[in-house]
Amino acid sequence: MTSLDAQNGVVPLGILICKTENYENWKKFLECMMDLLTRNPRKLTFMSDRQKGLRGAVEEVFKELNHNYRFCFRHLYKNFKGTYKGKMLESLAWNTAMSYKKTDFYRWIEDLDKIDHNAHEYLVREEPKSWSRAYFEHSTQCEVIVNNFPESFNKMILKMRDKPIWMIGEMYNDLVMKTFYKRRALASSWEEGALVPTVQSHIDSMKNNIQLYTFKATNDFLFEVSNSARTRWQVNIREKRYKSDWGKPSTPVKGPIGDHNKPGRQKMARRRGQDEGNPSAKKLKTCKECGKIGHNIRTCSRLVVRQEQEEAFHSQVLV
């Protein structure tokens, strides 16, 4: 069993050596781990690639505790593409899993339904709350949809697999001690109260795109943020929360009755009042080449003559 730290590093929590992977062994292992896992009052999130008997054991051991359960989408998609093949279906399936908002999720899942209804039904049956970011609870503060970190841990313990049981215990103990010591020594060099380097680096990279957004302040802590795609967010820096599509009307705005496009080109200038008089005449062009009024440098005959003289001079030099 593994977890992630604030640096997205793998944290080994415990191992169980057994002959087979089944409900009874998972239940026994989780009962041993329960005291460690429940020391933090926050809700637990379990994620797996659907190991045999794991979900049933989790529901049994932690039935009294509020928890979340996720599937690794890469393993789910592996079963999905066994029947539903093609780049288009692959793209739509992953888009549904990676969507952060339910509106985006519905859009991708509806597109999938238009192309292949059976593929749509397959994903819906697999409980989107277990594999799509749009349905993850914000309390977990973790967007992971693939089970990569246990596989990283499997590489760490590769040398242990063919060793006797007593040696596996010794090697695993050494691995945990060395890993925790290195991370503790590294963390001691960080500034107290600052963000961990990985998070700070991610925020710095996002700052590079700040010119793509515009900000409008409502007060000292509430802002409206929008991008070039006209997507808007209400950002509350005091509560460190945001809301999508701020100010978007909940019901469609109806246009005037009998509205239609008038013939001819649309007039861009505003309609002037009777007391404003006629607009001033357009400013006359002045050529920078000859100083005369009525044309610019691009259409100046004097410039053309000068260019021809320069070309003739260069040709004589080359000869």
Descriptive notes:
It is a single chain. The protein has 10 helices and 8 strands. The protein is α+β, with helices and mostly antiparallel strands and 319 residues long. Among the domains are: 1-71 and 147-187, no CATH class; 73-146, no CATH class; 212-244, no CATH class. Strand 3 (44-48), helix 2 (54-61) and strand 4 form a beta-alpha-beta unit. Pfam families: MULE. It comes from Macleaya cordata (Five-seeded plume-poppy). Residues 3-79 form the MULE transposase domain.
Query: What percentage of the residues does DSSP assign to strands (E)?
Result: 5-15%
Low-confidence stretches: 245-259
Structural class estimated from helices and strands: alpha+beta
- The run of helices and strands is EEHEHEHHHHHHHEEEEH
What share of the residues lie within helices?
Answer: 25-40%
Number of strand segments:
8
In short:
This protein is an alpha+beta fold.
Write the layout of secondary structure elements.
Blueprint: E1 2-4, E2 10-12, H1 23-37, E3 44-48, H2 54-61, E4 67-71, H3 73-80, H4 87-98, H5 102-115, H6 117-125, H7 148-156, H8 165-187, H9 197-207, E5 213-217, E6 222-227, E7 232-236, E8 241-244, H10 301-318
Parallel strand pairs: 3-4
Antiparallel strand pairs: 1-2, 5-6, 6-7, 7-8
Helix pairs in contact: 1-2, 4-5, 5-6
Summary tags:
two-stranded antiparallel ribbon; alpha+beta; 8 strands; 319 residues; elongated; single chain; 11% strand
